[in-house]
Each structure stands twice: as C-alpha cells, then as structure tokens.
Amino acid sequence: MIPTLTQRDRIAHDRTAPTYDRLVTRAFRPHHLIGLHPWVRSLAAKDFHSALDLGTGTAVVALRLSRVIDFVVALDHSFGMLEVARAKARRLRLNARTHFVRADCNRLPFPNHAFDVVTVQGVLHHTGSIDCDAVLNEIQRVLKPAGSLYISEPCTETNPLAHFLASIAGLLIRATRRLLRLPKPAPAHTSDHNLPLETPPLESPISSNDLISRLRNLGLAVRTRYLTNIPAATTLPDSLAASLIRTVSAPSGERFGDVVFIYATKP
After folding, report:
1. Which pLDDT tens digit goes with each residue over 75-114?
2. How large is the C-alpha radius of gyration of the chain?
3. CATH superfamily to which 5-265 belongs
4. Domains of the chain: which residue ranges?
C-alpha cells in the first residue's frame, strides 16, 4: 500500500528528527533571534497562562514559550520529533511546564477557547499533509479572545534587491573567511534517515499575502515582518548573523522576504 502524503510527511520527520536541529534549526537561529525571541519576551508582560505550539518538531518554539508561560502544549504527529523534543525539555529542565501531545494539526483535541497563545512555525508550507484552512479554523476555535497568534513560514514574496544584498553579504563573508584562513564549514551530514521516500512529502514556500488575507477573514488583527535568507551567514556567530540579516532585510522588511513572521491578535 502506498502511504498517504500525511504518512510520508510523518515518516520523513521521524527519520530526520535526530539531526534536525543541527541541519535545519541551526540555519534559522539568527531569524529566531529577530522574529521569535522578542515576541516571546513581550508575552511575559501579559496575563497569559497557556500556549499551544502546533507542529512543534523539536520544540524550538515550545521551549522558548515555556520560559515565560506556565503551561505549554507541544503538538506534533511525528513520534521521532516528539522524542527529541522531550529529551530537550528534560535537559533544559522545562519538562514540568511543557506537555507533549501526538495529534493532527487539522483536528485539534482541545475545547474551544483553550489557549491564550497559539504558535505555528514551519508547518503550513507542508502542502501535502496540511489543510491550511482547516488548521486556521482550528486555531481560531482554540484561541481565547484577546489571545495572541504567531506564525512563521517560508514565503514566495521574495525581493530582487534583498537577494542582491544577500549575495553581496555572502561574498564578503566568504572573502573574509579566506583572508583569515578560517577552515571551511563542515558539510551537511548525510545518513540513512535522509534516504528519499518513494514519493517525498510536498513542501514549498507559501503566499504570505494569501495567508494574511485568510487570517483577516477570520477576524484577526495582523502585523508582519519579513526577513531575507543569507545562507553564508550560518558560518557566523548567531548574534552577528542576526545583525547582518536584520540590516539586509531592512529595506524590504515590511513587504518582502524569504521568511514571514506574522503576529496576530484575536479580538
């Protein structure tokens, strides 16, 4: 029997879970410093007590939330990802605040108005296994009035100027490394968990404009921030990479970028 797209997505994430943080999360840490961490810190000043992180993966967002919110549910459909996430929570001593649930984002096992905060990072672009409208309707259902929503996704609203600046930044980084005779970055690790499936899961950048329109149709108040990728920046310390990405993204950060950060509030 050929597995469904949802099953293939789950199998792929089970396979990649052991090295996901090193191969994927690491590349986006500078983006998180800009788009995620300040927003999470802002929640500490609000009377929020519960949060739900959808498609938690290795719990990058959930464990950040657990630093400021007492009760965080981290939900995913991948056993492998949840096992890695649980181990991280224990290591960071955040396991008492973080509760892991295996379930489908399209059908949430929670009552109406259950959470003050809902977060979704790097999930909606899994177009083969995610029903975006179903997920957004479920978010609207479980989010409390006056609650906060965070979404971050790769998007199609890229900008030639930002990409040009990113390429210049990449050239400067590589030239500096050669000048200082720094060793080349280690290549990405390849092992059997990366073996291709018969039909791989479908992943592609989404239209942020379409997503924002759907959120507004659900009655949410939305603001956005866009960041441009600089692949060579992964060789820099996170704080320096974040500063470079922030600078390159500034000219187009209100409308264009490779990654969109959406911050919404439910009336």
Report:
1. 999 999 999 999 999 999 999 999 999 999 999 999 999 9
2. 19
3. Vaccinia Virus protein VP39 (3.40.50.150)
4. 5-265
